[in-house]
Design goal:
The protein is mainly alpha-helical. Helices cover 76% and strands 0% of the residues. It has one domain. The mean pLDDT is 89.
């Protein structure tokens, strides 16, 4: 059994959870930002994730990020993408969390990555899908580009915040999750017959 490290693992865990939460806004933007930071040498990643800083990976992530960003501005397609993005966001959240938890024993690293990273990504993605779904109904999709812009800002902002101030990114992720939970709870209270 591997020894549990001291508190020095908390900063990489906060960084990983912050990046994971950002994948719930956009799947590929945080991966691209992580890859660029790893390429510049400002972000250490686990050896098994060094590929994310390679030129082919960065090119593919950049293309995927641009396509994803553009697709969310197309009414109807944005709602379909939410269905596809949920499992992808959870997988990306697990991946970015594990990538930045470089000095943790594998059991702790993957447990944190799956539960905290995947959970943060799933909650963020679920909340944005909920908001977009209601916007589609209330505005016939006309309000969705505003939501898409906010999500893009969230993906970029939380990713960059995670790199420079992991604790603030973790706090922002927690606040967003609490806000989303209250939003859903309030909506269910007003619509008791809704699923």
């Amino acid at each position: 059994m591997e020894p549990v490290p001291g508190i020095d693992w908390l900063v990489p865990a906060a960084l990983g959870i912050g990046l994971a939460a950002a994948t719930g806004f956009r799947v590929f933007v945080p991966l691209l930002i992580m890859g660029l930071a790893a390429r510049s040498g400002s972000l250490p990643v686990s050896d098994s994730f060094l590929w994310v800083a390679s030129t082919p990976a960065l090119a593919m992530l950049a293309i995927a990020a641009v396509v994803e960003i553009a697709a969310y501005y197309i009414p109807g397609l944005d709602n379909l993408l939410d269905t596809l993005a949920t499992p992808a966001a959870i997988a990306a959240g697990i991946m970015v969390s594990a990538a930045v938890m470089t000095d943790l024993p594998p059991m702790l690293k993957w447990t944190l990555a799956i539960i905290a990273g995947g959970g943060a990504a799933g909650i963020t993605q679920g909340a944005t899908a909920f908001i977009r779904g209601h916007s589609s109904v209330l505005t016939a999709g006309l309000g969705n580009p505003v939501i898409a812009t906010g999500e893009l800002a969230g993906a970029v902002g939380v990713s960059l915040l995670a790199l420079v101030a992991p604790w603030l990114a973790l706090a922002a992720a927690i606040l967003f999750c609490v806000w989303a939970w209250r939003l859903v709870r309030r909506w269910r209270h007003r619509n008791p017959s809704a699923p």
